[in-house]
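Deliverable D4.2, example record:
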Amino acid sequence: MTEQDPQAAAEAPKAAEAPAEKPARHGPPIVVAEEVLNERGEQTAAQLASTLGTLALDSAGRQDTPWARVAAKELHAAAKKCRDGEMGMDMLNLMLAVDWVDRIQMIYVLYSTTNNRKAILKADLPAESPSIDSLTDLWEAATWYERETHDLFGVDFPGNADMSPLLLYEGFEGHPGLKSYPLNDYEEW
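Output generated by the structure prediction step:
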């Protein structure tokens, strides 16, 4: 029989009663929807795969909107194929950036006004000095999206002739869209 430390024995019940670590966020757990395409989405995905060929690194989608991830250096070529090929993606519907801390992911939502179909192109950029070719020569709307993304995430867009601040003032320091940007006087509630 071993001798038990009286202090350790007294602290054992307290440790068992100690509350678990607080969750990182408040609210219900996040449920991520399955990546399942419907029939229309499968047709668009087949068209997207045919259009991109070996440029697509991987792909999936939800409902009627497929996506394909391409290398950042191939994004312009992939977008041009989607616009000029059988897909006829004549509209840049949305462009956004996501800060995953280890990388910046660029997401381009393309839309065909003649075929009434959507597809998404994704490209990953390094977190340090993110840069990707501008799409302003393909869609004029890219100018504003790229300026906004430059303001908020610090992504450079070689080929965009107007990179003046869109949301922030000239000389603003930092990029408030990044998770590393300090939120002064911020309180969770």
